[in-house]
Design goal:
The chain has a single domain, classed as Response regulator (Rossmann fold), CATH 3.40.50. It is globular, with a radius of gyration of 13 Å. By secondary structure, it is α/β, with parallel strands linked by helices. Helix 1 packs parallel to helix 2 and helix 2 runs parallel beside helix 3. The N and C termini lie far apart (36 Å). It is 47% helix and 14% strand.
Length: 111
């Protein structure tokens, strides 16, 4: 809901579980995916790894309640460009999404 209030961000899809996230990413090819760690069927870290393998131009920002170093390290190892805690502030999430988008656009035109 917070994302749809941002004038420069467009939500093009949603998924309720890791398997669906992989399918949505393959179909819609988003520039940036916001991935929750704690999801049914397949956790967000495993889904992040699969999306990064299948859609290398898509950037993933992982959103988590578990800000421990192990979760962060696993998310980055899976291919996430950033890991943001759910609680502190939506501003941090918006900044991470915009930064990932800029990274995706820069990568797309790199020769």
């Amino acid at each position: 809901m917070q994302l749809s209030l941002e004038p420069d961000l467009v939500v093009i899809g949603e998924a309720t579980d890791g398997d669906s996230a992989i399918k949505v990413a393959a179909t819609l090819k988003p520039d940036v995916t916001v991935m929750d760690v704690d999801m049914p069927l397949m956790n967000g870290i495993s889904a992040t790894q699969r999306i990064c393998q299948n859609e290398p131009n898509s950037k993933i920002v992982v959103l988590t309640m578990y800000a421990d170093p192990v979760t962060k390290r696993n998310a980055v190892a899976a291919g996430a460009v950033d890991v943001i805690e759910k609680q502190p502030s939506p501003v941090m999430l918006m900044q991470a999404i915009r930064s990932a988008y800029i990274s995706a656009c820069t990568q797309a035109i790199t020769i």
